[in-house]
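Why do we care about 3D structure at all? Because function follows from shape, and shape follows, mostly, from sequence. That is the central idea of this module. The next example makes it concrete: a single protein chain, its amino acid sequence, and then its structure expressed as tokens.
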Amino acid sequence: MNGLPPLLRLLRPQQWTKNLAAFAGVIFGGRITEPGSILLDLAVALVFTAASSATYVFNDLRDVEYDRQHPVRRLRPLASGEVDPASARRLALVLGAGALVAALLLGKATFLCLVLYLGINAAYSSGLKHVALLDVCCIATGYVLRVLAGIYVLGDMPTAWITLCTFFLALFLGFSKRRGELVTATVAHEDSRPVLLGYGREMLDQLLNNSAIMAVMSYAMFTATSGKSPTLIVTVPIVYYAIMHYLRLVMHEDRGEEPDQILLRDRTIQVSIVLWLVCFVLIFYGHVTLFR
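And the structure:
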């Protein structure tokens, strides 16, 4: 990412993969063969991409001094001085306003999800990111809102279990990141991420284990009770393996600080996602019945 222009790096394009959560609508709603539905979820993903980048800029504006003390974040465009604060503010306002207008065009439910997302992120940047547990809960809620928006825009209703699965999986990723930061922390590093003082490695290990188990259980309940196809339970081992593999990377190889990089580079995670998607589509659209 270092080769990109400073203004583009300010938007954190490496984080845009998070917005693929909006495609939950077409995947879990059985609409993967409907071009119109795919386009609507793509629009939601783009709206949240613009909104999330606006929140990253806002967060960086508030954290310039903290970031300058961090061995990695000091290279961010604002902290390094490559982008001036006035330009960053204008960019954030344009992206945020544009996202709100586009979301309103996509419907009231999508607009409400985006307003809640922006509100929670504003609260996060303004202080909640310094409160242990609440910081990661804010991040996890952002994932949930992406999923809900991608489902509501299609006129569908989300199931309770897939909503919980999203929440706990996002908690798992968030606590993974905090553990990675704690492992590599120095005195200066802790100053640049004050919330780390509210955690300990043992506590984070427990939170990781709990959220991983809850994510798997919630997904298992979704496959068994959503009314779509009980045969989807054959995909549970894939989800279990992928999450536990990620847990091993975090707890035994200390690779949790950048979850987006694991998702983009770890071949096992990538193969697991593709295998899960292929199995899900074959079972759902092929009307495969193995259980009742």
